[in-house]
C-alpha cells in the first residue's frame, strides 16, 4: 500500500480509540485511522496476531509496529511532536519506548478508556 499513511488500531478497544481521538485532536494525526478488524491485513503485509498485539503504521509498503508506529505518528505531525518522534527512533530511547509500549499494551484494559474487553483475545470479544 502506498500514498497516505494508514494507522491500524484495535477498534474494539476503548483505550485504543481514546488514543486515536487524542491524536486527531491534540497532535494532528496525519494518517487514516483504520480498525484492523475491518482492514485487509494481508494487503498491508501483516497478520491478525500482530495487529492484535500492536498498533501499526503502514506507508509506502513499509510497516512499523508498536512504539515505532507511535514514533511515526509523532514524526508526521510536525513540530514540536516530530522532535519526540525522531528521538523515539534512537537507542537508548528506542529501547525504553519499546519497553513502555509493551507495558501499556498488556495493561490497556486497566487504563483510562480501557474496558475488560480489551484484555480478551479478539475472537472472544
TrEMBL record:
This is Putative DCC family thiol-disulfide oxidoreductase YuxK. Pfam families: DCC1-like (PF04134). One of its GO terms (molecular function) is protein-disulfide reductase activity.
Amino acid at each position: 500500500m502506498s500514498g497516505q499513511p494508514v494507522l491500524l488500531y484495535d477498534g474494539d478497544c476503548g483505550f485504543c480509540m481514546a488514543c486515536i481521538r487524542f491524536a486527531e485532536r491534540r497532535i494532528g494525526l496525519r494518517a487514516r485511522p483504520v480498525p484492523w478488524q475491518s482492514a485487509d491485513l494481508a494487503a498491508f503485509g501483516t497478520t491478525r496476531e500482530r495487529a492484535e498485539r500492536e498498533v501499526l503504521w503502514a506507508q509506502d509498503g513499509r510497516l512499523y509496529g508498536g512504539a515505532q508506529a507511535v514514533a511515526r505518528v509523532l514524526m508526521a505531525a510536525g513540530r514540536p511532536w516530530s522532535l519526540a518522534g525522531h528521538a523515539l527512533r534512537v537507542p537508548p530511547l528506542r529501547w525504553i519506548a519499546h519497553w513502555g509500549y509493551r507495558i501499556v499494551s498488556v495493561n490497556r484494559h486497566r487504563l483510562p478508556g480501557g474496558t475488560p474487553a480489551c484484555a480478551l483475545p479478539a475472537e472472544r470479544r
